[in-house]
Amino acid sequence: MKLLSKIFQPVITIPKGAKIKNTEITCKSQKLLLECGLVRPTSAGFFTLLPLARRALNKLENIVHHCLEDVGAQQISLPCLTSSRLWEASGRLEKVGSELLKVEDRHNKKYILGPTHEEAIADLLSDVAPLSHKQLPFILYQIGNKYRDELRPKHGLLRAREFLMMDAYSVHTDTDSALYTYDTLTHAYRDVFRLLELPVRRVEAPSGDMGGSLSHEWQLPAPSGEDRLSVCPSCSHTTLLEEGRGGGACGQCARETEIWSSIEVGHTFVLGDRYSAPLVMACYGIGLTRLLAASVELLSSDRSLRWPHALAPYKAIIIGPKEGSKEWVHHDQTQLEQLGAQVEKVAGDVVLDDRHHLTIGKRLLQADKTGYPYIIVCGRSALESPPRYELHRDRSEALTLPLNELLAFIKDYNNELDLKIKKEM
């Protein structure tokens, strides 16, 4: 169990329309993550991820690892720097040059801080060639920082110059094999988003500078999103709208469609042999920092963070009485730690708010703003026999329960979530 006073969480208050270190506050996820002490801007488009954000990202990475390795993907790590000659050979150096961050070493050799690694993977394949047909197909993936020189970085982690990304690459003897694996990875993607309980939609998209014969974007509907989807309320068919175009009628059932704003959180491509002739490649990406921020953008209120249950940095926080109060006699630091140990068995990772000099009300407001799924308060009812504790959950009305019922409620709720996810999968 962690003590809140020991967590590095520099909370701040951001006045409306404020600017922080050349960072304009343009959306609620950006504002809340800054105010609650989860991220800190260093310069335009670059952020330090503080301990709570890092915990949430660790949980997201673990989910992605599980879902990808479940379909046979193998993890690797490629250097962040890729020789610019590889990008020149593929033709992308000229096409996307303005978005690339470039460096030069002391020997005047030029490198690119990679936004993706298709060229590097293709170079790896050529270096180990020839590959046996018995080895194919295979899927390689990595999770690491990527870089893009955004002209106008904004919305915090939603459009940054440095971002954490999962990028995967499958290698095949022919297009049929690539399409089969593409379908397999599609199921893995759906498993990731189901575990997060996020309504992400796969939509056909242009291949753009990446090239290839097939491309899909993975879009999370959210009011602040910069992309637009045409969604049929009847058959759920979804298409990506080009800028300046209206929705029109659904191509599947001819019903009128609705226009939704959305955030792109992933992209997948069947590349063909553009990068890897005579082999066929497909590639797959999920922007993990963007997905984290997008989920917060969708689920949170203007005042309080809300997380996918699986990503909450800590599952529960315990708020004890104010020091010196009547309740403190029966629920001091030692007794609160004993309570926390019992809650931890059913809830998972638990924090004890040990700032006992503050009122319960102030600590409760801060806990709600940070978005703990379970907030347990030792208030006046803790003096009853047996003691009863307040349980606050997701802005719903507080329950007041004895300890055995409190623990059973949390355990049952967690089991319901697990069953719901398993049924959907």
UniProtKB/TrEMBL annotation:
Its EC number is 6.1.1.15. One of its GO terms (biological process) is prolyl-tRNA aminoacylation. Keywords: Aminoacyl-tRNA synthetase, ATP-binding, Ligase, Nucleotide-binding, Protein biosynthesis. Signal peptide: none annotated. GO terms for cellular component: mitochondrion. Residues 58-308 form the Aminoacyl-transfer RNA synthetases class-II family profile domain. This is proline--tRNA ligase.
